[in-house]
Amino acid sequence: MFKPQATDNSITRTYDIIAFGDEVPGILALVCAAREYFRRTNQYPRSLLLFKANSQLGIGGHLVRGGLSYLDRSVVPPDVRKQYGLNVYGDESTIYKEFLQRTGVVQVALDPRKADAVLREMLKEIRADILSNAAIESVIKQKQKITGVRLTNKETYIAKHFIDSTINAELAEFAGVKKLKGFETFGLPNSELSVTLTFETQSLSVQALKDVEMYYMQRFADTSDAVALNWINLAAGGDSERAAQLREPFINNKNDLSKIALYAGSDFIDVRSFALSIAYHSFRGTALSLDQSSAVLDKGNVAVFPNNRMSWNALLFDVNADQAEALARAKARPTAEMLNEMSRVIEWFKSIGATDVKPAAELYIRHAGNVTGTINPLTGAEMLAGGIPATEALGTFGYHFDVRGGIEGLGTRATAKGLGTSLFDKLPVPLFNVGIQHALLRDTPNLAVISPASGFEGYACSAGRIVEFNCAVGQGIGLACAIAMLSNRNLNEISNQEVRDLLVSTGRLSKIYGQPDPRPDEIAKLDKFEDAMAA
Fold this sequence. Notes:
Elements: E1 5-7, E2 10-14, E3 17-20, H1 24-41, E4 47-50, H2 61-64, H3 78-84, H4 94-103, H5 112-125, E5 129-131, E6 136-142, E7 145-151, E8 156-158, E9 161-164, H6 170-174, E10 179-180, E11 195-196, E12 199-202, H7 206-221, H8 226-235, H9 240-252, E13 263-264, E14 268-270, H10 275-284, H11 290-293, E15 295-305, E16 309-317, H12 321-329, H13 336-351, E17 356-359, E18 364-365, E19 370-371, E20 378-379, H14 380-384, E21 395-398, H15 410-416, H16 422-425, E22 431-434, E23 447-449, E24 456-457, H17 460-464, H18 467-487, H19 496-505, H20 520-534
Parallel strand pairs: 2-8, 3-4, 3-9, 4-5, 9-23, 20-24
Antiparallel strand pairs: 1-2, 6-7, 7-8, 10-19, 11-16, 11-18, 12-16, 12-17, 13-14, 14-15, 15-16, 21-22
């Protein structure tokens, strides 16, 4: 620990780099910066991880305290995998690959306990200091540059470069960076993605879950089963059209329900039907609708661990932009209403065989606005066009434009602008090259924002919020920090090309295989849509 300086009954500590927020991409950026600095100088920079939450609950943001164990992985088409000799998830950034290996991830299941331990090890290796329960009172600036962060306990932390990995770009906002609310990039400042309270179940095996689901599916497929039909009507909120919609997949597949049954992989389950959701909502007496119920047990993404332990990303809560921001500012703690819903989820899961059900300490907040004024904002159309040029690329990532729970008002606004709704019913999946310019600020030269709140516009934030993508960005930002420190330049002066050259020279550049969508009209259509919605 560095020796504090007493000033006016307060404490001031000086560092080279401060990372605010302990989301995994920010921690890995700090690690990359320190390692590169050490590689060149044989000494570690003075680095600090500063965050609001309680470190005793774990280090690692929503992957650890939020319990998001089912990792969203890069989506790479089979023909591209074959062409470039890639595995099913492509070629991750070297720092993310190391993180997955050290935490023992087989495919997608990340054990939060292991992630916490590994992140602590990595921070210890670079001799970083860690300070949790830290709330910002103000940011100290010299002209446009941030020079320090003053906390509410009157302690001040000085540094040359700053990394903000918070979901809501909280440090950036305190530094005067403008942030758009909600989906203001679509002209919908009050709309926001749903938040999730993940939970773990014990003693419910994969086979037992399959049996429970099949039991319900068979009953829902039987049109003479009056009790099951009533369950569907309850989940439909008494809406006969919605009830028919919910029932249709079971009736259509009644001769082979395995087509829509849950899929179990080596360490995960993808729930493909609403059978379990209908069963829960009929038990709960609420509609399977975020609009009507504000809380939904959705089709689950389930991480599977040894000894019949499962982690569920399934329980969604409807929030608007102000609520998402307030939750992020309040350490992502679930509200009393959310915990009440969770108590009913616990009750239902125990009724189908779980012996214990535990909610995560924090919510998984998907999105809480986006900063403006980055060097090169990133749009969905640019992602669909393949991202930055391959000659500058630091990695490649592919993912659906996934707006889980939907964006309230999107269809209405699109219709009002004469755009129709067909576009976002079947959006293509982008496979794009990654850079760092959307994370660097033009007017705050020593700050990077690596998070869902980076400089994304339109649909870009839906794919850009994924941890694997942001870890690739974080690796680039970390190396840019080291370059900036060693060349006495501002962080925002470091180009994609400089970082790429460093990755190449040190053998750390992952394969580059971003592809423009083969249908130019789809790219043009999305570009037009995003422009029109923002206007």
